[in-house]
Structures are given as structure tokens and as C-alpha cells.
Amino acid sequence: MTGLGLFGSLSMATRSLSTARAGTEVAGNNLANVNTPGYARQRVSIVTSGSVPSAFGPQGTGSMAVGITSIRDTLVDGQMLSELSVRGSLESQQQGLQYIQSATGERLDRTGADTSGASNGIAKDLSDLFDSFQKISSPNTNDPAARQTLVASAQDLATHLNQIVQRFDAVRSGIGNSIGADVTAANDIIDQVAKLNSEIVKVEVGGNGRANDLRDARQQKLEDLAKFANFSVTETPQGASNIAIDGLAIITGAVVTNRLEAFDAGGGQVLVRALGTATTLNIQGGSIHGRIESRDVALAKTRGEIDLLASNLISEVNAIHATGFGLTGTTGNDFFLGTGAGDIKVNPALKNNLQLIQANGVAGDVGNNTVVLKLAQLGDKPIVALGGERLGGYYAQAIASMGQDLKTINTQIGNQDIVQNMLESQRDSVMGVSIDEEMTDLMKFQKAFSASAKMVTTIDEMLDTILNMKR
Amino acid sequence: MRVTSNSFPTRLLDQITRLTNRTNQYQTQAATGQRITLPEDDPASMRRVMDMQGEGRKLTQYADNIGRHQELAQASYSSLNATKKIVDRAGEIATLAGGVNSPEQLKILSGEVDQLLARAVQFANVKNRNDYLFAGTKSDTVPFVAVKDAQGRTTSVSYQGNVDLAESEIAEQVTLSAQTVGANTTGTGNRGLFVDSQAGADLFGHLIALRDNLQSGNVAQIQSVDRVDIQKDEENLLFHYGSNGAAQARLETSLAVSKQRLESLNMLVSKETDVDLATTIVKLTETQNAYKAALQSGSTILHQSLLDYIR
Fold first, then answer.
1. Residue range(s) defining the domain that contains residue A439
2. Is residue A340 a part of any domain in this protein?
3. Are A373 and B167 within 8 A, CB to CB?
4. Residue that is last in its domain, among A396, A419, A442
5. Which of A36, A99, B104, B247 is the most exposed place for a label (fewest CB within 10 A)?
6. Interchain CB distance below 8 Å, A435 and B56
7. How many CB pairs under 8 A join A and B?
């Protein structure tokens, strides 16, 4: 035997043509998917097609394409899922805190008439209230205009506190709705991942090679899911991705074992559990976690502080006011009614009859301002229940604390941007499509194809030569 | 690191987004002149600014309180001046009575003292913004009520007010009253302007006695008792002149201090919140240049590929 022979060589050229064509097709597919999100570039695997014995020793029989592989880095993919969860949580917390910040209405504006930058928030209303007490105490206790101003500024403060609580309630309810929407979207993705699992297993178990495009699509869906909640992924030998949230299996193979459900745990506190179960899932990442966190930590904290401020304002003002006497000699009336920021209001009796404001320390002494002076000085009094802070100082601290929380989240998102950009660059460098590379591959395989075609022509001519030897 | 076709647009978009955010930040700072607007910008500064704003509003209120006290002090001072003229004239009449022998002339002087008495009662019942100035804290009560006989002559003047004064804040935890009580017969506490037992002053009683002694021609009593009593009234007035002057001086000082503190506070607020405009404009220009460079370099790179060079 002497090598392949002419027909063997013709077969080799045919295989080479197929290999070059496959290379061109894969490069074309890569080019077509250059902007497809989640797409990982593919490469055709080419091997030599074995050798045959010849008089000169083993002789090569060309090359052949044995498969198409997708170039992915599973470590980076895993990290990406984790970082997307963190980012989803941070962004939701940021959104929640921004709502809280807006609800308080505290902002500095030094371009207005008041160059100190005073806003129209609670801080100004508190100052206005104590200034109104000052106006009556200086010494003007029976001035109806001053009394009217006092009632108006007290009512402004009370209304503002009521409005903040209403806005906080709206934020809380909005967060609940958003959790519900997130759960619906997450369930939809869970269904799609289970379906993709099924298709991947069918393709790969059938011995048709690796289901690259389906795997890309699944990774993309998993990344979408990670934005809503964090989860653990385990890949089965058959190629399915099993998903568990807080240790509870959500997808096993191609089956959705548990769906998520948003439920009201009482008082509008929307939480998440597996559908049909009673146990709340402790989700530690993604937008669902961020929303729960912003509602149950940041919003609850700021609302609690505003409530504490209001309840102390009510009790402290009323305690002093009750000891005074109105212009008609009445005593013991409350100045504020209510128990907290949600229901604080000025006693309607005082609004209807300004003479009932108990500013005097002695009945009948309309110029005696000892009680209203104490009320005016209340603004500077450290209050034990507020940690030794003044009313205004406590509010300013609550605002600063909320601002600090938001600033911290902003910084964390900035850091997260850096981490995520690095990961994306890293991943892009592994799986991203380069048009230049694909064009080069295209040219390379085109030349190989042309060369193989030339070989077919050459063998053909050689066969013609042989056939023409006999005339 | 391998750079792919999407590396450029992704990176460019990221850079442009960051530069746009920064441009927006510097533009806002340049337009408002403020470094911080929201609590998240600088929470610690926000807290300090809110405290300073509160303090500023309080200082403004203290200045208003001081203004009100000054008004009262000046109104009291006007009444003091008017009363002083009455006391001076009463003293002159008491002295003059020693050299007058004619009962008719003494009766004419008695009539003048009666008029002085009526004016003194009128001044003692003066009002400021609907409040009686010399009634103590019973500011809605007529402080002095004249009791008259059948001939319409005042026989006594009783005090309806009290000896308490309404103090209010002129600085943090510093209270003051610029008022004066009309009468104090308790021997302690705030000195009365028209009647004060500590000083032996009783302007109305002394004027009534002078008038009656002039009427009856009791010159000896006038010389030995009434002149001395009116002297005590005058000394009491001088004491109140001193008190009023001291209160006005204190108010002036407090007002000046409040204004100074307000100015310093404005400077401190400015220090906390305001941007250095020159630095901000330079940074804004830098960022804009970087933005233009990113766009220009990006468009150059994105337009080029191997496709431009192969047939």
C-alpha cells in the first residue's frame, strides 16, 4: 500500500472543505451575535483525521471538525450572579432611601430669600413654633395676632408631621407592591430557566454535543433572576441547573419545585415565602432583599424617630401648657392632641377660641408670661427620651443619620460599579466576540476552503491524466 | 487582556455616563453656589447647617424680642419724662408756697397741683399696644383709679395692678423685662414708679397732700413735709431713669451681639454649604473637556475596524 491514493486524497480534500466551511459558519455565527446579550463566542474544534500506513510510514489524512465549543468562564459567571444580587439589593435600598429623603422635604436652598438655606421642612416648622411662643412671651400674652400666629405655626408643624407619615406610608405600600411585582417577574424567570434546563438536558443527553446557545440563554436568565433574589446553583451531570433560595429547592432539573409568593405578614409588611408554605424565606440579596431592608430598617428607623419626636413634642408642650391659664381663666387644657406624628393636631378648642391658650402663670394676670416663656424655652431643653437632644437637634440628627445611610449606599453602589465593570471586562475578554478576530478567521477558513477546492481540482486533473493514458 | 468589539462601546458608555454625572454635579454646584443640597451630599455638614439655621432663626427672634423690649423701655421713658416734669413743677410750687402770703394765690397754686395730679394719673395709666404700661402683669387692668369727692376732686388714687414683671428671652436662657410696675407697697421686689414704700415715694398721695395744704394755707406743713415728700418722689423717678437707661443699654448690647452672631452664623453656613466657584468652574471645564475627548476618541475608534482594510 502506498498512502491514500487519488480517491483517498479526494476524500481528504472533501473533509477539508467541510472543516473550512464549518469554521466559516461558526465565525459567521459569532459575527451575527456580536451584540447579543449573554452570547459567548464559539469555536470550531478541528483535529487531524488520523493516518493511514504507507510505504513511507503513517500518512496524514487531513483534518475534520469534531465539535463547536462555547468559550465561557464558569467562575466569572458565578461571581457575576453573586455581584448582580448585591447590586440589585443596593439599588433597591438606594431607591427606598431616596424616597425617604424626598418625603422629609429637607433640602438647602441658599438662592432664595433666606440665605441660611432654610428649607420648608420640619426643622423650620419647629423653629417657627418656638418663635411663636417667644412672640407671645415678649411680653404680649394677650395679643390676638400673636396667638393666631402661634396656632397657625403649630398647625403647620402638625400638618407637616402628618404629611410626612402619609408619605412614609405611601412609600411603605409602594415597596410592598414592588416586592409583589419582583416576585411575579422572578417566578416568570424561574419557569423559563426550568424550560431551558429541560431543553439543555434533551440536547446534551441525546449526544448532540453541548447546547451552547441554550446554556447562554440560561445564564442570561439566571443573571436576570439574581437581580431579584440571591440563590445557589448546582449543575447536574445531565446539564440542568438546580436552583435553591434560602436552602429551599426552587428548580430541580426541569421541574419548578417551589414558586415564590409575596404575602402580607400583617400591617402591610409584605414578605416572600414559597407558594403554599407558611415559612418566610430569608432572602439575602437582590432587589427583594433591598426593598425589605429599606422598608424594615431605614424607613422604620426614620419613621420611628419622627414619631418619637412628635410624641415628645406633644407630651412636653402639653405638660407645660396644662399648668398655665387662658385669658378666660381656663386651665388644664392640652395644646396638642394625638399620640405621634400620624395624628398630632392642635387642640381644636384652642383654634376656635384663642383666649384658651394657657400662656399665663397666674389666673387673671394676662401679662404674666411665665408659662409661655417656659414653652418658648422648651426648644432649648435637652430631653432625656430623645437621648439628651433638643427637639430640633434630635430631628436634625435623624435627617443626618438618614442622609448618612443613603450616602453609604451611594458609596457602596460606586464600589459595586467598579467590581462589576471589572468582572464584565474580564468576562468580555474571555467570551466576547471580536469582529477583527472573526474576520481574520473568516479569511483564514476562506483561504483554507479555496486551497482545498484547488486540491480537488488538482486531483481531478490527475485522474483525467490517468484516464487519458489509454487512447 | 483580550479586547473585544463590545469592550469599546461598553467602556465608552460607562465613561460618558460617569462624566455626564460629574458634569451635572459641577453644573448644579456652579448654578446654585452650593456644595450640599440634600442630606446625602454631606450628612455631617447638613446636621451642622440645620443646627445653625435653628440658631439663626432663634437669634432673629431674640432680636425681635429685644425690639419689643426697646419699644416698652422707650414708652416707659417717655412717661418718666412727662412725670418728671410734673414732679419738678410740684417741687417748684412747694418751694414757691413758702413765699406766698395770699390765701387766694395759694388756692390758685392748689388748683394747678390738682391739674398736675390729674395729668399724673393720666400718665400712670398710659397704654402700649393695648396693654397698660404700669400695671405689672395685670396689663389689661387700669392700674390707677382715682377716687373723687362730690366736688370732683381726687381724694385718693388706688393701685389695681401688681408688682410682677413679664420677662422674656433676649438671648439663650437670658431673660429681661423693660417694664416698670406702677406701685409697690410691699417693701420688697420690683420698685414702683409712682408709689414705692421702700423709697418713701407716693406721687399721688403727696400731690393730694400738697394740693390740700395749699388749699387750706398750711404753708408750714408744705415746707416741712410736702417738699421733702416730693423730693422723695423725684429721687424715686431718678432711680427709675437709671434702671430704664441700664435696661436700654443692655438691650442695645444684646441686639449688637445677636447681630454679630447672626453674621458669624451666616459665614459658618456659607463655609459649610458654599462651593469655591473658581474651583468648581475649573473642574467643570476639565470634565467637559474629558467628555469631548471621550466622545471624539470613541467615535474615531468605533468607526475603524478590519472591515475598512479588506476587500
1. 5-71+432-469
2. yes
3. yes
4. A419
5. B104
6. no
7. 226
- Cβ neighbors of A283 (< 8 A, separation 6 or more) are A229, A230, A245, A246, A272, A289, A292
What's domain B56-165+178-266's architecture? Answer: Up-down Bundle (1.20)
Q: Is A396 a domain residue?
A: yes
Given an 8 Å threshold on Cβ–Cβ distance, is A138 in contact with B140? no
pTM: 0.86
**Cβ-based neighbour number of residue A77 at 10 Å:** 20
Contact A135 B61 (CB under 8 A): yes
Chain A's closest residue to B306, CA to CA, is A436
Q: Which residue among A97, A118, A365 sits closest to B162, beta carbon to beta carbon?
A: A365
> What's at A41, amino acid-wise?
R
Q: With an 8 Å Cβ cutoff, is B304 touching chain A?
A: no
- At B117, which amino acid appears? L
Interchain contact, B47 vs A107, CB within 8 Å: no
Q: Check B57 against A410: CB less than 8 A apart.
A: no
Nearest to residue A26, comparing CAs of A40, A16, A15, A14? A40
Residue A120 has pLDDT above 80, yes or no: no
Is the pLDDT assigned to residue A117 strictly greater than 70? Answer: no
Give the start-to-end residue ranges of the domains of chain B. 56-165+178-266
Cell numbers for B304, please give them: 475603524
Q: Is B138 on the interface with A (CB under 8 A)?
A: yes
Helices (H) and strands (E) in chain B, counts: 7, 9
Residues A266 and A382 placed together within one structural domain of the fold: yes
Same domain for A239 and A330? yes
Contact (CB<8Å) B58/A373: no
Q: What digits encode the pLDDT tens for the residues A187-240?
A: 999 999 999 999 999 999 877 788 999 999 999 999 999 999 999 999 999 999
pLDDT digits (tens, 9 = 90+) for A17-65: 999 999 999 999 999 999 998 899 999 999 998 888 888 888 899 999 9
Closest CA to A372 of A45, A187, A149, A162: A149
Put simply, whether A414 touches B (Cβ < 8 Å) is no
Chain A residues inside the 8 Å CB shell of B51: 392-393, 396
Considering the domain architecture, whether residues A194 and A309 belong to the same structural domain is answered as yes
Q: In terms of domains, do A185 and A103 share one? A: yes
A265-306 pLDDT per residue, tens: 998 999 999 998 999 999 999 999 999 999 999 999 999 999
A365–B138 C-beta distance less than 8 A: yes
Distance between A432 CA and the closest CA of chain B, angstroms:
6
Q: Which of B3, B5, B167, B267 to mutate to test the interface with A (most CBs of A within 10 A)?
A: B5
CB contact under 8 A, A367 and B32: no
Instruction: Give per-residue pLDDT as tens, A140-199.
Output: 667 888 899 999 999 999 999 999 999 999 999 999 999 999 999 999 999 999 999 999
> Are residues A218 and A168 both part of a single domain?
yes
Are A412 and A442 members of one domain?
no
Answer whether A100 touches B (CB < 8 Å): no
Quick check: B135 contacting A, CB < 8 Å? yes
The distance of A142 to chain B (nearest Cα, Å) reads 9
User: What percentage of chain B carries pLDDT values higher than 90?
Assistant: 76
Domain count, chain A: 2
**Nearest CB neighbour to A397, from listed B37, B47, B172:** B47
